[in-house]
Design brief:
With about 650 residues, the protein is of the alpha+beta class. It has 18 helices and eleven strands. The protein has two domains: about 20-385, Up-down Bundle (Growth Hormone, Chain: A); about 400-655, Deoxyribonuclease I, Chain A (4-Layer Sandwich), CATH 3.60.10. The strands form two sheets. It has a six-stranded mixed beta sheet, with helices on one face. Helix 2 runs antiparallel to helix 12 and helix 6 (about 135-155) packs antiparallel against helix 11 (about 280-295). The longest helix is centred in the first third of the chain and has 31 residues, at about 20-50. Mean pLDDT is about 85; it is low at about 1-15, about 360-365 and about 550-570.
């Protein structure tokens, strides 16, 4: 019967070409996509804008971050008088508006506060979802949101749209926000909501996904060297396949519960212990199965599910904060167990749904269409990830230009991700060698970007990575000069929580060998003698692999680095030491380095200051040289793509 005066049935509302299940999954997945966008801006802004990394007390940054995760709890009583639907719609509108505003910002405090508010708005939206979205759609919606965020992040070369200028990123964000709001408007509501355990493990799944399942930076830690284009393409395709497998298993889970009990913790721990991406796709697949298992009936009360989601996100914040705070303060325990603990908690919470059953759900539904789509997306992702490896370029003359730069994970003074600006500026200097400190290859805390691959691609050069604090954070050399030897030497911690290393490389310039040592000293009084020993051994003609081995706190080279030796112990070669030494020319540590045969040419060239970048008051970034290297020009350009200024030195190899 038609409604009076309309000619249509009241229940016949056009919902597009989507089923009720899809209309529940799509807004949840798109909301997670926008929420993770805000999160990838919020976390690095907390470090670069609210504080200055290690200079701001961790507890102060933690309290500020916790504020925005606690504020959504104020929405709990608001859902009672009028129901959860207005809360769902209001959170969605605020999240979409905030995301558009983030696209318009140019860093600074507006970026910090908009990203902070975006996190709260996203949590309010997810709270509304926990109170309304039908139970059967939640596991697949959460998996689709996590996978969609990761796949898009990989497709964008790990540089999100919020960091990109121009009309195309704007158009893409507008389309996503419009589709999100439209889907929320049509989302069905149900009293059969998902159990609280499913919403709780979402925060833990976000930890694993952000740390290990959406970055290829771990590939560089296997050898500490350049990852070849085929490997990058294969690893990217494998990660995408794993993410799509997570969605598939969330929709069509396996019926054997032991897969979740054994495989997830085992694969996660193997991935952590080996610093390898090999088990990552398996972990993603079983994570989807855990989500499906946690979504089994009976359902919770809506309020309990919402509180479980907010509580799980607090666990996410605590896990991330504890993991990364350990690099600035000594917490008394190793942080490497945090992801493994998250994997174990996901499994344990999901298993509470089993209750003695041998068979959890029906056998997986085999959909050839989904498999074909997954295979196509995986192949496309692998093809898009292909990058030709630049060729080695021999230097015919005896002059070369070197840049030493602490890039602060690629974030400038305005808090914007300036990787492309760094690459464009460095390219204008026409360097032969670029030494980088504070290189991030995918830390969740910094937004999950591979700084090194991005800058090297912009320069058209090869890179060689040297892990320091962990496999994703350290120093690097970028050059197309022939590299004869290369090794990374971990330095002693000397009661400093952040690890450090010294990257020893021997390059060829005009047929002559030049030793280069790049480092970022964290505890100069103890580490300066170790670096001095490496310089002495290289200058005496020793190999990069064994340099400094006889010094106190002898170091072990990173496995897999090339160790070809072209010099003999009796020969000599010129050597330079460069990087953020956290040492001024007047400090006692400089006398230790001078005793190793190093001199400071910048003293006679005006002693240009390097830190902080906007108003420098000291020089802690250096390029020191031994005999055989003549510095022709040295400059400290006033660029603000980091909290340090770079040092540009042009020099000539004169021999020894």
């Amino acid at each position: 019967m038609d409604a009076p005066g309309t000619g249509t049935s009241p229940s016949r509302v056009w919902h597009g070409p989507f089923t009720a299940h899809q209309r529940a999954v799509i807004p949840l997945a798109l909301g997670i996509l926008l929420f993770t966008d805000a999160l990838r801006v919020f976390l690095p802004s907390l470090i670069t804008l609210f504080g200055r990394a290690g200079d701001t007390p961790p507890e102060q940054m933690g309290l500020y971050a916790a504020l925005w995760f606690v504020l959504p709890f104020a929405a709990v009583p608001l859902a009672r008088p009028r129901g959860p639907r207005p809360l769902l719609l209001g959170g969605a509108v605020l999240l979409a508006v905030d995301r558009l505003a983030l696209q318009a910002t140019d860093g600074g405090r507006p970026q910090l506060y908009l990203a902070s508010a975006g996190v709260s708005f996203g949590l309010v939206f997810l709270y509304g979802c926990a109170l309304t979205i039908p139970r059967k759609a939640v596991a697949s919606g959460l998996a689709a949101g996590l996978a969609g965020s990761a796949v898009i992040h990989l497709a964008l070369d790990q540089v999100d749209l919020v960091w990109r200028d121009g009309p195309l990123p704007w158009l893409a964000v507008l389309v996503v926000c419009a589709a999100f709001l439209w889907s929320v408007r049509l989302a069905p509501a149900s009293d059969d909501v998902a159990p609280g355990r499913l919403w709780f493990i979402f925060g833990l799944a976000l930890v694993l996904n952000g740390m290990y399942l959406e970055t290829i930076g771990l590939a560089g830690s296997l050898t500490g060297d350049h990852t070849a284009p085929p490997e990058v393409a294969i690893l990217t395709g494998a990660l995408v396949a794993g993410q799509l497998g997570m969605v598939s298993f969330a929709i069509w889970p396996p019926h054997q519960w032991w897969i979740c009990v054994i495989v997830l913790p085992a694969s996660a721990l193997l991935m952590i212990l080996s610093s390898s991406l090999a088990p990552a796709p398996m972990t993603a697949v079983v994570l989807g199965a855990c989500l499906a298992m946690a979504g089994m009936p009976p359902a919770s009360s809506p309020t309990r599910s919402g509180l479980a989601m907010l509580g799980g996100m607090l666990v996410f914040l605590v896990t991330v904060f504890v993991y990364y705070a350990s690099y600035d303060i000594d917490l008394g325990f190793a942080n490497s167990g945090a992801p493994g603990l998250a994997a174990g908690l996901i499994t344990g919470v999901a298993l509470t749904a089993v209750k003695g059953r041998r068979v959890l759900l029906t056998r997986p539904h085999r959909s050839w269409r989904f498999g074909l789509i997954a295979l196509t997306v995986t192949v496309v992702a692998a093809v898009l990830a292909w990058r030709p490896l630049p060729g080695v370029q021999a230097k015919t003359g005896d002059e070369f230009t070197l840049i030493a730069y602490n890039i602060r994970m690629g974030f400038g003074l305005k808090g914007t991700l300036d990787l492309d600006r760094i690459a464009a500026w460095a390219r204008s200097e026409r360097p032969d060698v670029v030494l980088l400190s504070e290189v991030d290859r995918g830390w969740l805390l910094n937004g999950g970007h591979d700084d090194l691959a991005r800058i090297a691609a912009g320069l058209g050069m090869r890179y060689h990575f040297a892990p320091a604090a962990d496999p994703l954070w350290g120093d690097a050399i970028i050059t197309n000069l022939p590299i004869r030897q290369s090794a990374s030497h971990p330095l002693g911690r000397h009661d400093h929580p952040t690890g450090a290393q010294a990257q020893a490389v021997v390059v060829e310039v005009g047929g002559k060998e030049v030793g280069i040592v790049g480092t970022h000293l964290q505890a100069p009084p103890g580490q300066a003698p170790e670096v001095a020993a490496i310089v002495r051994d290289l200058a005496a003609g020793g190999s990069a692999e064994t340099a400094g081995a006889a010094a106190p706190g002898a170091r072990t080279p990173v496995a897999g680095t090339p160790t070809t030796t072209t010099g003999s112990p009796g020969s000599r070669r010129p050597v330079l030491l460069a990087g953020d030494l956290n040492t001024t020319p007047a400090d006692p540590e400089m006398r230790v380095l001078e005793a190793a045969g190093l001199s400071d040419p910048l003293t006679a060239l005006g002693n240009p200051l390097t830190s902080p970048a906007d108003a420098p008051v000291q020089r802690i970034d250096h390029v020191l040289v031994t005999a055989g290297l003549e510095v022709l020009e040295a400059r400290v350009p006033g660029v603000t793509f980091s909290d340090h200024r770079p040092t540009v030195v042009r020099m000539r190899v004169t021999g020894v």
